[in-house]
Amino acid sequence: xxREAELDLVEVAGQASPPxxxxxxxxxxxxxxxxxxxxxxxxxxxxxxxxxxxxxFIDENDYKxxxxxxxxxxxxxxxxxxxxxxxxxxxxxxxxxxxxxERLAQDIAPLGEVxxxxxxxxxxxxxxxxxx
Length: 132
Description:
Blueprint: H1 2-5, E1 8-13, E2 20-24, H2 26-43, E3 49-54, H3 60-75, E4 79-85, H4 94-107, E5 112-121, E6 124-131
Parallel strand pairs: 3-4
Antiparallel strand pairs: 1-2, 4-6, 5-6
């Protein structure tokens, strides 16, 4: 029947008893599948993870500049990894760094939310913020 119709005989379910086959134009089927996959790739949004580093004793103007960068990242649809880095004697001021991260989370609340709470890893505290 497939030769008469000049189409392909395609096995759909080989595990079934008896095996299920279908008469179709296999090259057209492959073309349609590739087209659907390409269309799906166009619609997906790629989310990047941007990183911003802070130190516990950051100046107010520097804080505002980094806050504006964070806002820009979130508006673009990206996530941001906030890293609080402690150098040398700054390790004595971990509570100051945590307060700064809490302040940052409050300042950015209208645009994003904390996805991963601040976590101490060696000499750094990391936190991930994603858009709403």
